[in-house]
Amino acid sequence: MNTELSEEAVEFGRTALRAFEAAGGDQLVQDAEREPARRAELVEPVLDELGAWELDPRGGADELEAAAALCKAAGWWALPYPVAERLCRPTDGSTDASTEGLVVIAGTEPGPRSGPGPAAPVAGLGPRWSTVTLDGRRGLATAAEPVGSPRYTAFVTELIPDPIPAPVPDLPAIDGPADGLADLALGLVLPCWTLLGMLDRAMELARAHVLAREQFGQPLARFQGVQFQLTDAEVERVGVEELAKYALWAVATGRPEAVDDALALRLAALEAADLVFRVTHQLHGAMGFCDETTLSWISRYSQPLRRLPLGQAATRDHLTQRIGRIGLAGPFATQLEVQPR
Amino acid sequence: MGEGVAALRRDLRQLVHKHVPPDFLGAFTDDPADLEVAQSFCRTLADLGLLCMAWPAAYGGRDATPWEQTVVREEMWAHHEPRGAQYMGVNWVGPTIMRHGTAEQQAQHLPPIARGEVIWCQGFSEPEAGSDLASLRTTAAPDPETGGWRVSGQKVWTSYATMAQWCFLLARTSREQRKQQGLTIFLVPMSDPAIEVRPIPSMIGPHHLNEVFFDELRVTEADVLGTVGGGWAIVQEVLAFERVGIARYARCERLLQAAPAALGAEWDQLPDELRSRWARMLVHARRARLLAYRVVSLQSGGRIRPEDSAAYRIAVTRLDQESAEVLMDIVAGASLPDEDGRRFRRAVEDHRRYSVSATVASGSVEMQRILMARSLLAAR
Fold first, then answer.
1. Does the domain made of B121-238 have the CATH classification 2.40.110.10?
2. Which residue from A83, A201, B42, B81 puts its CA 20 to 30 A from A278's CA?
3. Closest chain B residue to A330 measured between Cα atoms?
4. What is the pLDDT of residues B180-206, one digit of tens each?
């Protein structure tokens, strides 16, 4: 088991960070929110320049790692674009090849427009999306016209699933459940890398703030109450980083439990996000709510990643149901014990 | 980790299955038979060349890779550390003597450790010197009669002092400008009548906590490890050996994974909320294990930073306590009628008792946070 990202992938991530910065950096999400119709034209040229769409995350560990590094870089800048979802688009012809990308959805029943139901932060980026449900069923959906300002929706829009065709007797299915589960694992893991990039950024912003901001004649960083909050949040962040690398390895090697690993990652990432954003907001004080601070933007645009397809409690319940009595794979998994004691 | 490491894991499990009774919950109980199990198991490991795998071949080891060492740590801790107190001699006393000991000290101390025949205790903490170790007051005063020193003072929380044959003792030999200076390591026999050990009864079990009193203990130049006054640097190395420390996550993970089978049909009757907490703990156990692997990997590459090991220590000690709480809840309402079930309940209760010390032992979690914050907030 080697879960370290290759040096090439790490370097690609650095290149992407610099490219996004050169294209506007933190300004990108602010411009896209102000002029939602320009979202694609603000971001797509730099992604094209990076060769993002030549990456095939299903094409092997190297490309998957590069895709993960790209998602993380996108998260750092809260890039107003579903990079992970686009990278996950099916390429095997199993679904309509003209879809814009792949989105994991919690169910196939449409919900009320402002409530639960399939949805994704894909507003205004093309109508047709491939979907995969949490039990691994592939499908297609149409993105609804955006309702409301992205300031409040963070570009989330409803997805209206196509009717599921009735099975035709005596004809083999286009794809087996294994393909859908592989899509599901990939579709869960890459957005977690985007969220990881956001956690990295939030921590770096908080670190810089407590070093610069003085109260009672000394930087906030000198206060142990501040230090301990920051360390607890950092432990969460670095833990997610390791689980993200592990889940990526599970996807790359096609392990049968890759969906469990992806859900385990997602659960840890959502827990970490709650703590990291709670702490980083607290340490910024009132400044953190203001749009002049980057934290305000990162925090708001982290919400779709944290709520869709399932929030923390529902993710935990789903993982619990999936692993049943077996638990997670690992050296102490029940079936790996060599001798019953 | 490759196939060789997996094979080692299988070998260790077979050995534990063969040589350690299923009821074994560690060497430190009220039953002397448990200590004998550990002593005997150490001799078995030594005979097979598995006790000191990490040691260089020149000292009778196998030059084990960091990943082989990791598997040994995991398997031993997961199975209630059947090496007993020997792990200290193997993990850090021996390696420190290899680095700083004289040829005579190496010849005297390394072979018994390698054979699994000797127990060491660590004379560091004092009533007034816990996290602030350099403030210790145990003093080695010059002895004009012998040209050596006479050590007087008190140590506390000294694990295994009741059964140890040797003590790795830190004492002050001079007052210098900085309190970290003037400290010296002595290797002293616990059989000396100038040493008195008083056990401290505690909830984590016998032998774990003791007071050790030194009353004019005579030591000589031959007992000094390294240089006189150079003890603090050695202490730092000892603490570095403990960076990864015991693999607490391994026992947590093993007990969590074993819970459904131990409960049998009762597992399905547990509240959904409790099973969901169990699943969450499994994720946290995996997270702690991966953070340990990260430290091993960074250490191997010479890229380790203080915050890396501190992050792991914070995560794993929290896991130890939180997993104990979840496991206690799981067994609380279960009848566990058969022997396997009763055994599981005892293991969980033992885990819970011991877990309370996780955030205190080997450096408190607050010290880890301070260490981590210092690194995080340092200039880059």
1. yes
2. A83
3. B286
4. 999 999 999 999 999 999 999 998 888
